[in-house]
């Protein structure tokens, strides 16, 4: 989604930071909802995404398992899919494209993702 007048200005990446890009429109909407409900926790998640997306820094940040462990974006398959638990139920799911040094935000929600319920 291209920015338009009135949108927030995205900070530029600096040094060795990772780029963070939306992979899906639903992620844009979910990110905004999380911003409104858990801004401080989401800021911490954003810092993790841009500095160390593939390093589990706590038990609330890890790669998903089984059939959810990888995903595809931009014709790139088998990218590792990670999760950050932003709140008790709120989650951010993203794919790591190490070659492009880009994190693709797939999902952001204030509720627990139904795909992990079993």
What features would you describe in this structure?
- This protein is α+β, with helices and mostly antiparallel strands and 118 residues long.
- Helices cover 22% and strands 31% of the residues.
- The chain has helices at residues 25-37, 39-51, and strands spanning 19-22, 61-63, 70-73, 76-85, 91-97, 102-109.
- Strand 3 and strand 4 form a beta hairpin.
- The N and C termini lie far apart (33 Å).
- The model has no long low-confidence stretch (mean pLDDT 92).
Summarize the structure in short.
The chain is of the alpha+beta class and 118 residues long. The protein has helices at 25-37, 39-51, and strands at residues 19-22, 61-63, 70-73, 76-85, 91-97, 102-109.
Name the descriptors.
single chain; 118 residues; alpha+beta; YaeB-like fold; six-stranded mixed beta sheet; 2 helices; 6 strands; globular
Topology:
Layout: E1 19-22, H1 25-37, H2 39-51, E2 61-63, E3 70-73, E4 76-85, E5 91-97, E6 102-109
Parallel strand pairs: 1-6
Antiparallel strand pairs: 2-4, 3-4, 4-5, 5-6
Helix pairs in contact: 1-2
Can you count the beta strands?
Answer: 6
Mean pLDDT over all positions: 92
Name of the CATH superfamily: RelE-like
Strand content: 25-35%
CATH topology: YaeB-like fold
């Amino acid at each position: 989604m291209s920015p338009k007048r009135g949108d927030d200005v995205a900070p530029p990446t600096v040094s060795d930071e990772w780029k963070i890009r939306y992979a899906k429109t639903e992620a844009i909407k979910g990110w905004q909802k999380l911003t409104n409900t858990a801004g401080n926790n989401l800021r911490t998640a954003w810092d993790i995404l841009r500095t160390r997306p593939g390093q589990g820094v706590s038990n609330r940040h890890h790669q998903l398992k089984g059939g959810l462990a990888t995903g595809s974006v931009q014709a790139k398959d088998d990218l590792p899919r990670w999760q950050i638990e932003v709140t008790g139920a709120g989650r951010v799911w993203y794919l790591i494209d190490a070659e492009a040094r880009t994190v693709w935000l797939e999902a952001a929600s204030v509720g627990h993702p139904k795909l992990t319920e079993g």
